Predict the structure.
Amino acid sequence: MRTALRRTAQAGAATLLAAGAVLLTAAPAAAHVTVTPTVTAANSYTVLTVSVPHGCDGAGTTKVAVKIPEEIISVTPTVNANWTVSKVMTDLNPPVKDSHGNEITQRVSEVVYTAKAPLPDDLRDTFQLSLKLPDTPGKTLVFPSVQTCEKGETAWVQVPADGQNPDDLEHPAPGFTVTEAAKEGAADPSPAADVALAGAESDAADEQSGGTSTVSWIALAAGILGLLLGGFAVLRPSIARSRGTDA
């Protein structure tokens, strides 16, 4: 019995140690500056959320500069009340034309958020950037970011080599891969279709409810008839005796 208990305790301790190792391994990855898109489909508009989860070795964050890939021309940053935001522009040579035929001579090469007051090390914040993705499915877009703090800075600029796991890097640059554009006809159902579907489901529910009510009434009637027949069967001998006595 003691041997079985000892083995159980050892197994539990091993499980706890393994879980702790997993948590310790995952912690550094969760601490990276990250970029999360709402949409990854090629040639689509998306909103990127840049997450800053901590400072630099305990020091508060004062500035975050995000470099924009060359494939992206225009970026619209979202206002954050705790930061001032500015865009760094770079000349395009040669110029390009937008979807309306207008000539574009500059692109946004960097977006810089500067803190009005240092972001404490134990707090996080996010920034949002609206932009149009290039028509390059399979292309990995990288957004090297430099996080400046009250003391020192952390440059999240490392790009993995071919076949290298990004988690093996100490300060990986945030990024994501552009996916295939959505095919025509694959869009979500229209509101009208949703209404029609809801109506059909409602009709089906009404029919089912009506059928259930009918069955319930039939069952109730059968139950009452059974009670009447049972009562008559009980009273029948008494009625017969009563008739005999009267005769």
About this structure: The longest strand covers residues 103-119. The longest helix spans residues 191-246. The radius of gyration is 36 Å. The chain has two domains: 31-177, 189-247.
